Amino acid sequence: MSDTPVLDKKGKQQRYEALVDDLYQDVYRFAYWICKNKPLAEDLVQETFLRAWRSLDSLQNDKAAKAWLFTILRRENARLYERYRPELVDVDDQSIADTSFDAPDDAMDKELLHNAINRLESEYRDPLLLQVIGGFSGKEIAEILNLNSNTVMTRLFRARGKLRSEFSTGIDLESDLDEPKQDG
Amino acid sequence: MDKSEFETLALANPDNTSQDFLDALNEDPTRQQFLDEAKTLNQRLNTTLNNIPVPDGLASKLKEIAGEAESNVVPLHQGRFSFRGFALAASLVLALGVTYSVLFRDSGPSSAEIAFGQQIIEHIYMELDQLDSEASVNFQTVSQAIGSVGGQMRGTESVDNLHINFAKPCNIIPENNSVHLALQGTKGAVNVIVINNSPVQAEFTLNDKRFKGVVIPMGKGNLILIGEKEESLNNYRELLAKNVDWVI
């Protein structure tokens, strides 16, 4: 992808398609874990990229495209959630990916972890998704979520702590999981 | 770095490579075991989160969206999304259409006007994070923003008393100039949008689950006011009419 906006029609199309090729899988997976529903995740991704197309000229640097798309998607999800609450199929039953070829213990581990992730509150889940799926740094996550960096790191710590407590790896924590009052 | 702080950093980011973190790691042999276990958890997490299969053909669909958007001015969702999305869009279009035909025109709004109204509402949702901020912009910034679309704002006492927390050019319709101001209303942000060369030729109201608004033709463009449903927009309409000269 280029670093600067291309304004002509053909250039815009090429820029957009490059953006799709580079990022659609990450955007879909982020959508899926946020809404816990495959068809709705696909709708969210389509809506996100449509908005991206319409506003592509406002994206000054393609290196910021992933953060931009994830932000659009979060807003779109919030809008849809505010307008209506779909009947979600239990994600536990339909999307434990690729467990059929795993050894029984591995499959059980994946299912346990999958379920534990789904039980995380969004304030802990979202920073974790941005870090693991999006590959964003703490500072970048703070900008996307409009939080300060300390709060983000605390929430990431607490997210993994909660997962660990449900999906024990034997880690004993010195610090508790209470979140300090650090929101900016 | 004490043990608690180290564990916080290790769980927050098991791949932390900062020197402070690495130095702290070497302070106590038990910390390496903690970090190894955190990395094991993270590896499983990474595999689980990124192991979700992506639907076949999704990239092609996303590329087609751009072509459709380029060739048609249609309300969002129409003809592209699942029944859920279509029903949602249809309900909004119906709401806009009913309001418009009852108040102003027997024949109802054009598809371009419906799409325009929907784009405005969507734009407000897109900017929600910034609209209710505590920030305040000065008169000069507001005046420059309005000037960018051909307006002139007078610095009267009434205007000076407004709390304006957002003023910048926007791209509701990318090829047209527009500016978006957010005033602090009694129920939340009151959005003032001025746009050049819009498709709307007659005044009509907008209604959404959360917001209400009015699109007012002015010269070659529109003045648009949108606020929370409980907000009285008439006061702002009157104030703006008295204090803003539109030369668009």
Unreliably modeled segments of chain A: 2-6, 84-104, 180-184
The CATH topology of the largest domain in chain A, please?
A: Arc Repressor Mutant, subunit A
Tell me the fraction of residues in β-strands of chain A, as a range.
Answer: under 5%
Q: How does the major sheet of chain B shape up?
A: 6 strands, antiparallel
Strand content of chain B: 15-25%
According to DSSP, the number of beta strands of chain A is 0
Mean pLDDT of chain B: 74
Succession of helices and strands of chain B: HHHHHHHHEHEEEEEEHE
* Terminal Cα span of chain B: 62 Å
Rounded Rg of chain B = 25 Å
Number of domains of chain B: 2
Please explain how this structure is put together.
The complex is a heterodimer of chains A (184) and B (248). Chain A is globular. Helix content of chain A is 65%, strand content 0%. Chain A has 2 domains: 9-83, RNA polymerase sigma factor, region 2, helix turn helix motif (Rna Polymerase Sigma Factor, Chain: A, Orthogonal Bundle); 102-184, Winged helix-like DNA-binding domain superfamily/Winged helix DNA-binding domain (Arc Repressor Mutant, subunit A). By secondary structure, chain A is mainly α. The two termini of chain A are 34 Å apart. In chain A, helix 6 packs across helix 8. The relative contact order of chain A is 0.10. Chain B has 2 domains: 3-50, no CATH class; 110-246, no CATH class. Chain B is 47% helix and 19% strand. Chain B is built from 10 helices and 8 strands. Chain B has a 6-stranded antiparallel β-sheet with strand order 2-3-4-7-6-5, sandwiched between helices. A two-stranded antiparallel ribbon of chain B has the order 1-8. In chain B, strand 3 and strand 4 form a beta hairpin. At the A-B interface, helix 1, helix 2, helix 3, helix 5 and helix 6 of A face helix 1, helix 3, helix 4, helix 5 and helix 6 of B.
